[in-house]
Amino acid sequence: MQQFRRDPILGRWIIVQYDREQGPQNYQSQAIQKQNNQKVCPFCVGHEDKTPDEIYIDRTPQVNSEGEAWSLRVIENKFPALRTEGIPSRQGLGIYDQINGVGAHEVIIETANHDKDISDLTIEEVKRIILAYKHRCIELKQDKRLEYVLIFKNHGKGAGASLEHAHSQLIALPIVPKKVKEAMLGAQKYYEYKERCVFCDIIQQEIESKERIVLENDLFIAFAPFASSSPFETWIIPKKHSSHFHDISEQSIGSAADMLREVLIRLKKVLTDPPFNFIINTAPIQHDEELNFYHWHIEIVPKLTRAAGFEWGTGFYINPSPPEKTAKWLRDVRI
User: Fold this and answer.
1) Residue 68 CA neighbour count, 13 Å, CB half
2) What is the pTM of this model?
3) Ramachandran angles phi, psi of 120, nearest 5°
4) Which of the residues 1, 17, 105, 299 has the least number of beta carbons within 10 Å of its own beta carbon?
5) How many Å apart are CA 231 and CA 152, to the nearest integer?
6) Model confidence at 326: pLDDT above 80
7) What φ, ψ does residue 236 adopt, rounded to 5°?
8) Which residues neighbour 289 within 8 Å (Cβ) at sequence distance 6 or greater?
9) How far does Cα 220 stand from its chain's mean position?
10) CA–CA gap between residue 322 and residue 229 (Å, rounded)
11) 66 in helix, strand or coil?
């Protein structure tokens, strides 16, 4: 049996397969294989001269359990997708448009320890990572050339990571990405029709049904979206309405760190350390006011399947692992 499901935010349809349902055992071949012959890692302690100077550094003693010189560093990407110099200049070439590549591209080196990832860190160490994200967003918000900040992590070669040492990235853009605009437009239309935030409604329904809940604490829930486009896709979202990630409170940082760490531990256990991406979805940084229709959240997507001709041709995604099942597998695993 197959089933069409519609994403209530983007209006995108996905197909959930039941007759060829795939469980964790079907994805074991995707597990990350550590490389023992890696050359000198530029992100390790003692190799700071191999990277640009840090923009932000954390030397918090209670976080730094390894006794290293630092616990976390934020640096400019050595090979940036965008550069900070210049003013965004829009040009028309006949029917085509272009803007010069102004922006920011930074790397957050999440730990001094080469062999650890977020799932191996303490909650206090993960809190410092989220605090660094917040700090950089607030700093970049002061640059009026920039409209949007995307924070993302590529874990494993299959997810686009070029170095094993745990790190995430930040790219600040002079324009709001199309996907973000589409999500905001969909959320705004829902709000105009129902006078409620679609994300808040999703939270309420998921808490009531409990079918797709993976974890829950006082301030956040983690769940498998009803219209998940990928197997084991998991969202982490604050229960209290908030449109901008950089407004996250100190108390919420602790809860978010706890939730992010545990979800990643569960994914690692169930899927034997799969490659994954996560992104922080947030409102554009130059929108100073709280948006009553948009809700920031983290999307975690293990890279277990590939888009092929059908997906490219239709925009429909085929998910062979029903979200209700993936949530249960993640919820029930012993950690």
Assistant:
1) 20
2) 0.94
3) -100, -5
4) 1
5) 19
6) yes
7) -120, 125
8) none
9) 15
10) 10
11) coil
> Where does 100-222 have alpha helices with state H?
123-141, 178-194, 198-209
Q: How far apart are CA 198 and CA 9, in angstroms?
A: 7
Would you state the structure tokens that stand for residue 25, as one six-digit string? Answer: 């055992």
The fourth-level CATH superfamily of domain 42-332 is HIT-like (3.30.428.10)
> Is the pLDDT confidence value at 315 over 90?
no
Residue 167 annotated in active site: yes
Residue 175 vs residue 90, higher pLDDT: 175
Contact 118, 110 (CB under 8 A): yes
Distance CA 202, CA 223 (A): 10
Q: Collapse the DSSP code of 200 into the 3-class scheme (helix H, G, I; strand E, B; otherwise coil) and give the result.
A: helix
DSSP 216-285: E-SSEEEE--TT-SSTT-EEEEESS--S-GGG--HHHHHHHHHHHHHHHHHHHHHHTS--EEEEEE---T
**Contact between residue 253 and residue 131 where contact means Cβ atoms under 8 Å apart:** yes
Token pair 């909650």 is at which residue?
123
Q: What is the dihedral of CA 264, 140, 243, 9, to 10 degrees?
A: -70
pLDDT surpassing 90 at residue 271: yes
Measured CA to CA, the distance from residue 306 to residue 303 in angstroms comes to 8
Of 124, 126, 119, 109, the C-alpha closest to 45 is 109
Q: What is the pLDDT of residue 29?
A: 74
